[in-house]
Q: What sequence folds into this?
């Protein structure tokens, strides 16, 4: 199933590119009426993507809750939980600093904004991105859910993680009396993974719709206008991948080479849909087959989706300094380092915010006297940039889970990365007994 789905997603991507460009070339005659017509057509295609993402959101909350509670219950004691959490947070902080620092180094080496020479906008010009200053008290209080029902209804992953930790620790503490609930949660994991398989069959259609809508409305020109910036940023992402996988190799050895093969489907889903949530269910399965114990993956991944956004981190530094270069604003190295630290802190409060990277950038730019209106320069291509940074977020969390698993005693036996659905009846998902503990 995995191999066929990957092929269908690639086909959907290619068909979407062709269909979008054909529609744009056929209907776009440069008039406002044509632009409105293309926007309406793109809106119809967006329905497919929206439905798919809503299906994904439908399963995220119960899947995170079930896998996390099950994993904690299998750890056996709170000491193990604290140890795994400390190692994961330590990795997240290090990876975030590396991502931000690498973005700073590369944007200064490549100078993608130099020569654009934008005129400084009038004071008060708005980029149209809602912003809010980072507030430590709001961030800390927001972590704790006032209601688990509300947290699940709004897909507040961090709040779900906090509640799940309480439930998992409590089940461990009550011992045998909690065994029936542990078995019920294990059953819920299997059910949610089965539902995931059903939902993922819609992914190729969603990819086709997303790419068609974007290119039909905006055309190929939107890419060409800032091609150098896009190319520079994707080069930066490749460098970050090399660093993450290189450090992963130092920790887990040659096995890191197999990681990409096991997680290529969730990576492709994340890239084509620009949604980390869309990749989360499949990433759990892929890491399980790769040998990461579920008690590790089910704990590290939800935390990583809030605290380990490596692709978003490098983008925030890269884009902020690109805008400064485009306006011809000279920023001393000390100021750039201060911006890096500011981004490091403020980015931790935006889990679950749509287009979170842009929101953080828009909040940080005025602090360093960079016109917020500079965001307008990259808004048109943000979807294509989001594809790359989302895939990087996913690979960063895959490496993080694998490294923590190695630090916690090693891996389980590997399973085949691909299962031929012809040899099984129904969806090729692991049954409840094969989601190892």
A:
């Amino acid at each position: 199933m995995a191999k066929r789905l990957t092929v269908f997603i690639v086909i959907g991507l290619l068909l979407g590119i062709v269909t979008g460009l054909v529609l744009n070339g056929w209907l776009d005659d440069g008039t406002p009426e044509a632009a409105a017509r293309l926007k309406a057509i793109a809106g119809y295609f967006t329905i497919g993507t929206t439905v798919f993402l809503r299906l994904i959101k439908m399963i995220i909350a119960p899947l995170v809750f079930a896998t996390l509670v099950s994993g904690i219950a299998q750890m056996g004691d709170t000491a193990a939980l604290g140890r795994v959490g400390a190692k994961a947070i330590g990795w997240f902080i290090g990876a975030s600093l590396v991502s931000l620092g690498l973005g700073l180094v590369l944007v200064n080496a490549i100078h993608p904004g130099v020569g654009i020479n934008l005129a400084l906008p009038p004071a008060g010009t708005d980029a149209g991105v809602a912003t809010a200053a980072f507030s430590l008290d709001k961030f800390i209080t927001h972590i704790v859910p006032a209601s688990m029902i509300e947290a699940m209804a709004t897909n507040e992953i961090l709040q779900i993680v906090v509640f799940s930790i309480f439930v998992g620790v409590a089940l461990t503490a009550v011992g045998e009396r909690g065994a029936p609930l542990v078995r019920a949660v294990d059953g819920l994991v299997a059910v949610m993974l089965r539902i995931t398989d059903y939902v993922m069959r819609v992914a190729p259609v969603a990819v086709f719709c997303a790419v068609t809508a974007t290119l039909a409305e905006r055309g190929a020109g939107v890419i060409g206008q800032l091609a150098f910036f896009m190319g520079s940023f994707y080069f930066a992402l490749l460098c970050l991948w090399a660093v993450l996988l290189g450090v992963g190799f130092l920790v887990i050895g040659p096995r890191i080479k197999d990681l990409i093969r096991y997680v290529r489907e969730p990576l492709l889903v994340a890239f084509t849909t620009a949604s980390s949530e869309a990749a989360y269910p499949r990433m759990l399965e892929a890491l399980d087959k790769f040998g990461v114990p579920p008690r590790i993956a089910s704990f590290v991944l939800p935390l990583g989706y809030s605290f380990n956004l490596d692709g978003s981190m490098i983008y925030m530094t890269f884009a902020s300094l690109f805008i400064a270069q485009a306006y011809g604003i000279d920023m001393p190295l000390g100021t750039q380092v201060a911006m890096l630290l500011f981004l490091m802190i403020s980015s931790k409060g935006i889990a679950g915010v749509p287009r979170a990277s842009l929101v953080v950038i828009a909040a940080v730019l005025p602090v360093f006297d960079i016109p917020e209106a500079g965001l307008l320069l990259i808004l048109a291509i943000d979807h294509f940039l989001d594809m790359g940074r989302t895939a990087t977020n996913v690979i960063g969390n895959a490496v993080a889970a694998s490294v923590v698993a190695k630090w916690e005693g090693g891996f389980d036996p590997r399973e085949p990365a691909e299962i031929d659905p012809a040899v099984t009846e129904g969806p090729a998902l692991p049954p409840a007994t094969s989601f190892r503990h």
The longest helix spans residues 32-75. Residues 123-128, 419-437 have pLDDT under 50 and may be disordered. DSSP finds 18 helices and no strands in the chain. Residues 312 and 357 are 6 Å apart (CA to CA).
